[in-house]
Structure formats: structure tokens, C-alpha cells
Amino acid sequence: MRFGTTIVLAAAAASLAATAVAPALAALVQKKTPYFASISASKARMRTGPGRTYPASWLYQRADLPVKVIDIYDRGAWIKVEDPGGTQGWMMGKLISDTRTGLVMGTIAELRDSPRYGGRVTWRVEPGVVGRLSKCARGWCHFDVRGRGGYVEANHLWGVATDETLG
Questions:
Q1: CB atoms < 10 A from the CB of 63, how many?
Q2: Are 112 and 152 a contacting pair, CB within 8 Å?
Q3: Rg for the chain (alpha carbons), in Å?
Q4: Which of 35, 54, 105, 112 is packed most tightly, with the most Cβ within 10 A?
């Protein structure tokens, strides 16, 4: 393959990748802050300001970690987030996803087969476990950790408001 053809193909691939990410980023930018989202990359730097010239304050090495979006800068190029520990900083917009996740906080949480206290306990998860959230209503959320899921009380999770309704 000729060098010129390689450049054209690389540019086309980059353009396709950008258009695939653009709708997801546009959806994030249109939401009213604050709201919960998650880190999409397995490695993501938090910076002290909205730009690569600002020093990195944290390196997150945990995809799907829930974050609270508290500000948006430059049409979503940079997003100010708060992590579960309360640390705030800026991340590149493409590192943030609208995928809803939760982090178990406090003590071991029981996952139940139905969203009620009388539901059968199917799993127990330790503090620090991250899972995907869906079907949140009346203080309960369906929480899935790599295919093992159940309903957990929302007050055991960071990444969802206790009165929030999802899906």
C-alpha cells in the first residue's frame, strides 16, 4: 500500500471513530448538571483544570467507576467530575460515558431477586465493588457485576440518588 493511501485510510478511520463517539458526547453535554456518569477508559487522568497543560492530580485505572458530572467546558471537550471519595477535577470528555454504574459503599450489600426486603438474597457484594445499574425505582436498583445481578437498596450505592428512577 502506498503512503498516501495509508494516510487517507487512517483519516477516514479517525473520522468514523469521531462520529461514533460524537452522539454519546452530545448526549452528555445536553444534560443538566449535576448528574451521574462513569469513566469509560481503563486509564483516565484527572487534571486540575480543563486542558492537557494542567497537571494531572489522579490516574484512575478502573473503567466503569461512577462519577458525578458537575460542570462542562468547551462544548464537552472537558468535564469536571467528582469521584466517590469527593475528589473533584477535570477529565477529557471522551473519557466519560453516560453508562450508569454504582459503587457499593459502607458494608456488604445484599442483592435480591426482587426489589423488596422480602426478596431472596442471591448474592452479596463487598464495599468497593462496581456494577452496572438499571431499573432503579422506589429506592432499589438492579445491580449487575459481570452477569451476576440482583436488586440492591440504592442507599448502599454511590452513583445513583436514592429517589432516582432509571429505565
A1: 17
A2: yes
A3: 18
A4: 112
pLDDT surpassing 90 at residue 31: no
Whole-angstrom CA distances from 144 to 41, 79, 130 are: 19, 26, 9
Give the C-alpha distances (Å, rounded to integers) separating 89 from 35, 80, 103.
15, 5, 19
Asked if 99 and 131 count as a contact pair (C-beta separation under 8 A), the reply is no
Distance CA 77, CA 63 (A): 19
Grid coordinates of 81 = 467530575
Count other Cβ atoms within 10 Å, centred on residue 95. Answer: 20
Residue 61, all three cell numbers = 485505572
Return d(Cα 70, Cα 89) in angstroms, integer: 10
Q: pTM score, two decimals?
A: 0.81
**Of 147, 108, 103, the residue nearest 124 (C-alpha):** 108
| Phi–psi pair at 28, nearest 5 degrees | -65, -45
Asked whether 166 and 160 are in contact (CB, 8 A), the reply is yes
What does the pLDDT read at residue 140? 97
